[in-house]
Structure formats: structure tokens, C-alpha cells
Amino acid sequence: MAGIRLQPEDSDASNQARAVALSAADLVSDDDRSVAADSWSIKSEYGSTLDDDQRHADAAEALSNVNLRAPSDYSSDKDESDAEAVSSMLGFQSYWDAAYADELTNFREHGHSGEVWFGADVMEVVASWTKALCSDISQGRIPNHVDDVKAEAGELSNKLLSSWNVLDIGTGNGLLLQEIAKQGFSDLTGTDYSERAISLAQSLANRDGFPHIKFLVDDVLETKLEQVFQLVMDKGTLDAIGLHPDGPVKRMMYWDSVSRLVASGGLLVITSCNSTKDELVQEVESFNQRRSATAPDDESCRDPLFRYVSHVRTYPTFMFGGSVGSRVATVAFLRK
User: Fold this and answer.
1) Phi, psi at 283, each rounded to 5°
2) Using CA of residue 128, residue 131, residue 135, residue 137, what is the dihedral sign?
3) How far apart are CA 229 and CA 109, in angstroms?
């Protein structure tokens, strides 16, 4: 992941991010980059692939109509052009296919689960915090912008959560869904555009005693899913999308697609290392404004589709460059 915001140079997560970025150059060949660029290119009405000139013309026109910041603005290393160019490989499917091919081989040969993106501690916090939030909402207690999420543990909470259907987009090795399953959720689906990631995720779930978790190959930007979900989770997928050269436009495509996957009254929980809580809230507000502007006469589009509900306040924070920040932000949005 590029440029983890407000992170000390000597932190373990920062060193890990740099190691991943540097390894991308070895994993992705020129041919792979060409194939990846073609497979990720913007499509007109999700149909035929546009040429580069038309794609960038469309991108410029789309960006002129919304208040959405470029991915470099979300990164603390935006002045380091070489690092930015290398890390942008994480925006290509060919990078992830190569990475998960390696992890799948390691699993088959050594039983390794693979990388836990952002770390196991963050994954556990996301899972337990999400359980508390969903439990509160199930019982009609929607947190305000000030109060922390406070849920009553017990049989009632677990019974309510068992009825929630959950989607993890960009699931990777699927370990987040395993943590979610441990919290009492049972109707679980993970999707990823890498077939190798899905193979790894299914293998790990079967080994670890979670054969009921469903895993499907699906690209969130051009999703084939027709079902809606009460809880949609994203741990790093929006970050990766933003690292593609066409990241700003693809982020808009992301919001259009995700808005069709979250059920009315459902939750979207995003965990990011490239955007702060305030930046994610601003991006959602930009999506709401763009949606309203595209159908000014449609009363159903006038009200915001997503609204901020809460965010994790327990991640460690520190001072850097005169600002207080955290290396990770987890934010929840409620769909009307």
C-alpha cells in the first residue's frame, strides 16, 4: 500500500509497506502491466474498452464535475514520484494474481495462511468493533457522532447477528471473514477479482473450520452480484483501487457499484491506510452530491444515500508533522 499516512519512518508497518512495494517490480512484467492496464481500462456503459485518449478525456470530464481528490493527495509520500510509481503496481490485477499465486503455493507446501493486511491486531479490532456496531443497530441504538459504540454482549446479540448477511469485497485470503464468523455472523460471502485469492481463501476456510463461508470471483467495479447485503466490508480494497493510474475515476465507479450492494438500512464498513476518517467522510459526501446532481428531478436522489455513523477510536495515535493521526482508519456508513 502506498504512503501510509502519518506513520513514523521506523515503524514495522511502514517497513512492510516498502518491502511489498519494492517486490512489485519483480512480480509484474512489462507484458503483465500491459495486460493489467487493458483489463482495468474504463469501459463505456460497461461495454467495449475505450482507447487511452478517450479514457483520459472521460476521466478529466468526470473529475471536473465532482469534488474528489486525486490519490496522491491521500498519501504522505506524494512528493516521492519513484515510490509512487512503484507502489501503483498494487492497483493492477496482475500484481495481486502474482502475489496470491505465491501465497497459494506457500499454503500448499507449508500451510502458511499468508499476509494479514494491516496486521492481525487491526483485523481483530475491525471484527469486534463491527459486531458491537451491528448489535447496537439491530436493537435500534444508532450511535451518534460523539459516543463510542457500546453493545451488550450475550445471547440476544449473537442471535440478532446470525441473521445478518455479510459481504467482504476484495477479500484476499478471507481471514477477515473468519474473524467475523467468530463474532457470531454466519451468512458470509467473500469476493475478489483474483481467482488465486479465492482459491486460497476457500482452502484456508476449509482448513480452519469455516466451510460455510462462500467465496466468489467478482470484480467490485463491474460486479455481477445481484444480491444486496446488510453489511458490506472493505479492508484495503478502496486503497488498492486508488493506486491505479485511473484511480480517481475508479473510486467513483466503486461508489456507484457499492451503493447497489448495500441493502437499505445496511452498513458499509471501510478500513483504509491511505485515507483518514475525515477524508472518507468527504468522499462519501462527494458521492452523495454527484448522485443528486445526476438526477435533480428525482426526489429519491435528494437525500444522501450514505451517511457517516461511527469510526474506530481505539487505534493508537501519534504526532507527526504537527498533526495527530493513525496508520489506519475504520469508518462505518449507513445506507438510507
Assistant:
1) -65, -40
2) positive
3) 36
What's 297's DSSP letter? Answer: T
Minimal CA–CA distance to 127: which of 238, 294, 269, 266?
Answer: 269
pTM above 0.90, yes or no: no
Q: Which residues in the chain land under pLDDT 70?
A: 1-87, 143-157, 296-301, 318-325
CA dihedral 13, 318, 131, 240 (to 10 degrees): -40
Widest CA span in the chain: 59
Q: What pLDDT score was predicted for residue 145? A: 46
DSSP per-residue letters across 82-151:
HHHHHHGGGGSHHHHHHHHHHHHHHHHHH------TT-HHHHHHHHHHHHHHHHHHHTT----SSSPP--
Considering the domain 12-40+50-335 in this protein, what is its CATH number?
3.40.50.150
The reported pLDDT for the residue numbered 308 is: 96
| Domain-wise residue ranges, the chain | 12-40+50-335
